[in-house]
Amino acid sequence: MAPARLLDLTRLVSRLGKGPLTGVDRVEYAYLSHLLTLDQPMFGLIRTNLGFLLLNRAGLDQLPALVRGETPLGQPDLLGLLSHGKDPIRARAEATLRRLAIARAPHPLLQRLLRRHLPAGSSYLNTGHANLTDRSLSAVHKAGLRITVLIHDTIPLDLPQYCRAGTAMDFERKLAAVSRHADLVIHTTQDARAKTEAHLARLGCCPTGLVAKLGVPIPQPDDSEPPPAPYFVTLGTIEPRKNHALLLDVWEKLPAPKPMLYILGSRGWENHAVFARLDSLRPDAGITELHGLTDSAVAALLAGATAFLFPSHAEGFGIPPIEAAALGIPVISSDLPVIHELLADYAVYLDLSDVYSWLETITALAKTPKAKHGQKRRIDPPTWADHFK
Asked: How many CA atoms lie within 13 A of 146 on its CB side?
């Protein structure tokens, strides 16, 4: 048998049945979709509490419909109920995958599982940051597989104050395992590469790296009627790093009648002050919080927006501003090197410490008819075809 590709799908499977995919999930899904188009043999590896599951192409062919919600998850089995009794969706997801698996093994027997089922010369791909442990990667290497890992960013180490408690320590262990075991590291931007390789070198070894920008499909709006202009949009999980607090400050200072701000995204973690402000908004605050929208509904709101606002403290890539720029919508962003790398002079860059500049820029845009904003060009976003080359 020809060498195969083994794609780690642990992260993606953990999201089954739990709503829209996040940015990292979308990358793992893009790899799955692409590899399924190739003639080369392909397998999927999933780590569960009870051990590893191995899927062949026949099983993987059924996974995209499960991810999209077109095929419902099956009923939980006894193992699922025992290991995920408090998470019925996860119990159903893992039970469904167990039925599709061609083999399974407890954690200590991963090497034997891979040697038994994968041909010589195969390679392992990890794009979701899950399952990056010395134990797992060592077993993969000992089974004779070449290891390629995509590192999205090093924000947990660079700015731990914007992450969940304990994230920095966990991510350091993952990156140390990558440093010791990876044959190739994929970076999504030059900025991310510089930061990641500095940490990898500090941890002992900097594997060979390459930069491949993530694919960003041009958003396809649905046919819903956009809200009355002017209005602004920000998109992303409501967590400290995304800096929704700055926009709340700006909207408090805007004179009446205020343009509408649509905050698109689910509530995240460690952001109680912002949640409290959102919960106490007056009807005339000019702010609406929306979550759970379909991609096409989000695209429709973006397409009609006066501008897209992105006051983030840090990004590894930054898909939402690229999507806005692909639709020809003005982008007002924090002054991040990665956004300069991706959007160059398309975006307007503002200092996060200067609330007045944000207030002045938003006020001016709200008073100017959209046709006169001067943002006539659109960018051509990077494609998955270019990434996979």
From this structure: 13
Residue 216, CA atoms < 13 Å, CB-side half-sphere? 22
Distance of CA 25 to the CA centre of its chain: 6
pLDDT for the residue 376: 56
d(CA 265, CA 161): 21
Neighbours of 228 (CB within 10 A): 9
**How many degrees, rounded to 5, is the angle at CA 370 between CA 367 and CA 373?**
85
Q: Would you call 328 helix, strand, or coil by DSSP? A: coil
pLDDT at 78: 79
Note whether 104 and 52 are within 8 A (CB).
yes
**Mind listing the pLDDT tens digit for each residue in 163-182?**
888 899 999 999 999 999 99
| Neighbour tally for 337: CB within 10 Å | 14
Separation between Cα atoms, residue 161 and residue 155, nearest integer Å: 9
- Give me the phi and psi of 346, to 5 degrees please: -65, -45
Q: How far apart are CA 354 and CA 357, in angstroms?
A: 6
Dist CA 269 CA 275 (whole Å): 10
Q: Which pLDDT score, from 0 to 100, does residue 375 have?
A: 52
133 Cβ contact partners less than 8 Å away, ≥ 6 residues apart: 173, 174, 177
Q: What predicted TM-score, i.e. pTM, was given to this entire model?
A: 0.92
The string of pLDDT tens digits covering residues 14-33 is 888 887 788 899 999 999 99
State the pLDDT at residue 270. Answer: 85
Q: Are 293 and 221 in contact (CB under 8 A)?
A: no
- The Cα–Cα gap between 180 and 200 comes to 9
Q: Please name which of 98, 92, 29 lies closest in space to residue 64, comparing C-alpha atoms.
A: 29
